[in-house]
Amino acid sequence: MFCLECGSTDKKMIGDICIDCFLKDYQMIQIPHRIEVQICSHCNSKLEEGKWLDENIPEEEVIYRALEKNITINDLVENEIINLKIEQLKGTIAICYVEILGEVHGQKIDENHDVEVKILKSVCPTCSKIQAGYYEAVIQFRAHNREIKNEEYELADKAIERILIRQSKVDKLAYCPQIATLKEGRDYYIGSLKTARKVGESLKDEFGGIIKESPRLISEDKSTGKGLYRIWISIRIPEFEIDDFIKYENRILQVKSINKNRIIGTDIKTAKNHTIPMKHLEDIKLLKKANEIETTTIISKSPKNLQILDPSDYSAVDLELKDGFQDYNIGDEIKLIKIDNYIYLVN
């Protein structure tokens, strides 16, 4: 049997031609001489089949991935090794070298291709939103019946920053394009609703309080006729703070703990702890602030009573000696709070 192209009779045959003639025009891979890749100039995400993918990767990696995606290896190739190299990068054009080492019908082949990759810069929809200061939700940070303190603002800012840093790994719109400080509190504008809800929960974890959402119609999508909404998320933290005195269900409590789900307070009459679900926040009345606690002197002590000086007029007042105060002695200073003209001793 002889090769129909060269007439050789002593070589391996592939169909009607010898292996040498077969390999003469054979290509192990197909790859275009010019490849165009559209990427976002801000985040380096790549437009592929109508979707923006692979964000925040270096431009060189974008080029290598474009080369890999456009290589088609022929079925006869075995044990292939592909080497890619960017020979030169001129502005938005990369001159690339593609080498493949492989075997076809037992013959080792080394094949080279020169490929030009053109980078087309544009802006993806998400980065376009970010550049325009787009936001989907507003966090309204408020306190019930009081102004928010500077240290509370600082804690809130840090809590929000932590959430935004964590969420930015999975949500490009996890950012805060605007903060507005108002008399009644502070508004944080958040890029995505999903992240805004996590921010709200973080503030609730930090301060306690109640979260409410309210959508607001901002415009209408002309193509669909559907309304476009933004969500206002209100987080209202308690009027009272740790060590303040509150009234709940006819009990006078000194606040000992506040978290996202409950308030724990100590009854100043019985010294027993009571838990109030956060959902009953609006049923709690603030009676006295911790800074209204006064100090006085013990002037007399009996097995059942302590006699103190009323700090308002220095008159002698007899009080029942309750558990927790037995170690006090005449001449010691002791703390008290006056509520509805009645004096309560506090630790």
Automatic annotation (TrEMBL):
Pfam family, one: NMD3
Gene Ontology terms: cellular component: cytoplasm
Highest taxon above the source species: Archaea
Stretches assigned to the Nmd3 N-terminal domain: 3-237
Stored InterPro entries: Nmd3, Nmd3_N
UniProt GO molecular function: ribosomal large subunit binding
UniProt protein name: NMD3 family protein
